[in-house]
Amino acid sequence: MKAAPRFLSAVSAAALALTPAVGGAIAVQTLTMASAQAAVVNAISVRGNQRVAEQTIADFVGYQPGRNFTDSDVNDAVRALFRSGLFSNVSVVRSGSTLVVTVEEFATVNQVLFQGNRRLDDDRLRGVVQLAPRARFDQDTLDADVEAIVEAYSRTGRSDITVDASVVDLGENRVNVIFQVVEGDRTKISRINFTGNNAFGDRRLQAVITTKQSNPLSFLTRNDVYDDQRLAADEERLRRFYFNRGYADFRVISSSADVDPSSGNIVINIEVDEGDRYTFGNIEIDSTVTGVDPQSLTSTIQTRSGRVYSAVDVEDTLIDMSERLAGAGFPFAEVTPVGNRNFDNRTIDVTYIVDQGQRAFIERIEIAGNTRTRDYVIRREFDLAEGDAFNQILIRRAQRRLEALDFFSTVSISTRPGSSPDRVIVVVQVEEKPTGEFGAGVGYTTGGQDEGVNLEGSITERNFLGRGQAIRIGIGGSQNSRTYNISFTEPYFLGYRVAATGNVFQNRRDFGDYEEVATGGSVSFGLPLTDDLTATAGYSYSQTAFNADGADCTDLPGDPDANCSAPGYVQTRIASGRDRIKSSVSYGLIYNTIDDRNDPRSGLFVRAIQEVAGLGGDARFVRSTVDASYYVTVSEDAEVVGLLSAGAGNVTGIGRTVEGFDQFQLGQRRIRGFSYNGIGPTDAAGNFIGGKTYFNATAEVQFPLPAFPRDLGFKGALFADAATLFGSDVAGAMNTNMEWRASAGLSVIWQSPFAPLRFDYAWPLAKQAHDKEQRFSFSVSSAF
What we know:
This is Outer membrane protein assembly factor BamA. It comes from Oceaniradius stylonematis. The chain is of the alpha+beta class. It has six domains: about 10-105, Ubiquitin-like (UB roll) (Roll); about 110-180, Roll (Ubiquitin-like (UB roll)), CATH 3.10.20; about 190-275, Ubiquitin-like (UB roll), CATH 3.10.20.310; about 280-355, Roll (Ubiquitin-like (UB roll)), CATH 3.10.20; about 360-430, Roll (Ubiquitin-like (UB roll)), CATH 3.10.20.310; about 435-780, Porin (Beta Barrel).
C-alpha cells in the first residue's frame, strides 16, 4: 500500500478511505489540511454548507475566538465533522488567524419511488429498504437496498428478479431515488429428492419438512418457495424425526438447491446417512452433588430399557429431572445424559450425570423476528426471567412451548456472554406465520323436519392483535335453523397460566308449528397441572324461548294437541308462555399427548367432564361424559395411521326426572350415517326426544391417497362406527331400550390451506326402522 501524500495526515487518509462516492451526483474531493505550527484563531469561515448552519459546524470543530489551534486540534475537527454523518467531504485549513472550513454535504433523499412492482406493493418494499424521505443519501445504502429488494422477492419464489436503481438530482442537494423492478416469473420447486434413505421413503420424509414441491395450491400456502434458512431448519426437522425413531447416528450429509436448466425450476437434493436403529439399554443416574440422592430422581426418567431410542424421551427426562432438582434447592445442578452405544446388540446405555453446574444468571432475554407478536407473549412461555439462575434444560422447555403455540414457523434460542462471566444473554429468534383460519362444513340430512343442506362456517384468529389471544366467529344454518356464536380466549388470565374462554351464542330452529330460540353464554377456565394434564371449570347460562307459529300448538292449556308436531314437554313449555332457563357449572380433566392437533399420528386424548345444573333456573341434573381417542402409526413409511375412540355419557335428575331438553342427542361426531338427533327414544308422534345414556366407539385407518401428490394434503380413511342412545324420563317415551346402531364408510381428509376438512360417506349397517339417515357429510375434521 502506498504511503499517503505528505500533505495528508494519517487521520485524513483514513477518513478519505472510509468516505464513499454518492451515485455520481457528488464527487469525492481530496481532503486537504494545512500543516502548520500552533496558532491563535480569532475567526472562522465556513464554506459549502447549504442546510447545516454555520454555528453548528463551528460547534463540531470546537471553534472559540482566541483559541490556540494545533495540528492535533485540526485533525480532531476533521474527525468530528465526519462523525456527524452530515458531510461527504471536509477540508479544514488555517489561514493566518482564520480557520477555513470547507464542507460538502450529503445529498438528502426527497422521495423513494418503486416502479414495476406488482407482487410486493410499495408499503412492503418501503419496509425493506433503508433509504427514506429526508434521510441522507449514500451509494452504499443504495446498493444494500437493491440487494434487500432482491432478497424480499426471493422469499416469495421469484429468484430471477432484477432491480435497477437510479438517482435523479433535483438541485439544492436533493435527490429522488427510483427502484425499477422487473419481477420475472415465479420460480417453483419441481422436485425434492432424497438419497441414502432406506428406513423411510421419499414420500414420508417429504411430509416431515416444511419445504414442499410446487402444486396447484402452492399459491395459497407459499411453502414451495426456496429459502436457504428454511432448508437448514428442515435439516433439523429430519434429525429430530430420525432421532425420535431410534436412529441415533443419523446425519444429513448434504443438501443443495439446483436450477433445472430445461425448466428454470429448482430441484432440491438431500443426502442422508440413517445409521443403525437402537433401543435403550441400561438406564442409570449418577450424582456428584452432595445432598442429591439418585433414587429420588428415578420417577422422572422417561426412558425405559427395551424401548426404541427416542431423543424426545431423553429430553423430557432432562426437563423433569432439572425441575425436581431446582425445586429441591439445587438451581445450578446440571444434568447431562451420557450414552454408551453397544454396536453388537444395537442398544444405548444412558447414564444421567448430575453435576454442580457453573453459577450463571440470566442478564436479559432478547427477542427478534416478532413483527406482530408482542414480546410478552413470548416471554411468558419461559419459566425463567432476568436475574434467575440460568438453566439450559428449562430454556429448551420454553422453546417447545413456543413451538406448540403454532404462531411461528421457526423458533431458535441461543445464548451469548453477558456483561460479566456469570451473566448470560438469552436470544430468542422467531419467524412468524399466518394464524388465521377459515372453517367450513356442509351436510345433507334425509327425512324429517331438517331434511336438506346444512351449512356452517367460522373464522378463527389464534393470535389476535399479536397478543396470543384467540377469537372465533361462527355462523351456520339450514332451511329451518340458524346458529351464531362468538368466543374469545385469554391463555394467561390475570397473568397466570390459566386459559379463560368466554362464549356467547344464539341458536334458532323452526319446527313448523313452533320456533325455538336459545340464547346464552359461558365462561370456562383451563389450568395446566402438567404438560399433558389440564383441569377445567366453567359456568354456563342459557335462556330458551318457544314461540308458537300454528294453532295446533296454542290450543292449550290442558292436554297436548295430537296435531302439534312438538313433543309433549315442548307443548307444555309453550303453553306456560315462560322461557326456560338453565344455569350450570362444570368441571373436569383433559389428558392430551396428541402429537399434532390437525394431523394426529400418535398420542392419547382423554376428556372427562361433569356438569351440574341447578344454580337457579329450571334445569336440575348431573351430566357426566367421557371421551377417549388413541392414535397410533401402523406403518411409518406408508403413513398409515390407526384410530380407536370411544365415548360414554349419562344424565341423572336431581330430585326430579330429567326433562327432554336435557337429554343427549347424538350427531355425526358419534356415529356417521345417521343425522343429528336421528337415533334413540321417540315420543308417540315419532319425534326424537334424546336419551339419558349413550355409548359410542369408532375404529378407523387413515392413509395417503396414492393418486394425489403428498403436498396437496389429501388422505383417505376407512371407518366403522357403533353407538347406542337409550333411556328416557319423558312421559310416553318409546324405543327406550339399549339398541346398537352401526355404520361403515370411507372418507377423504384434506389438510387444506384454510382448515382441515373432511368428507364422509357412511352406510348404516345396523339400524332401527324409525332412525333418520344422513349418509354424506362434510365438515371441519379437527376433533380436539
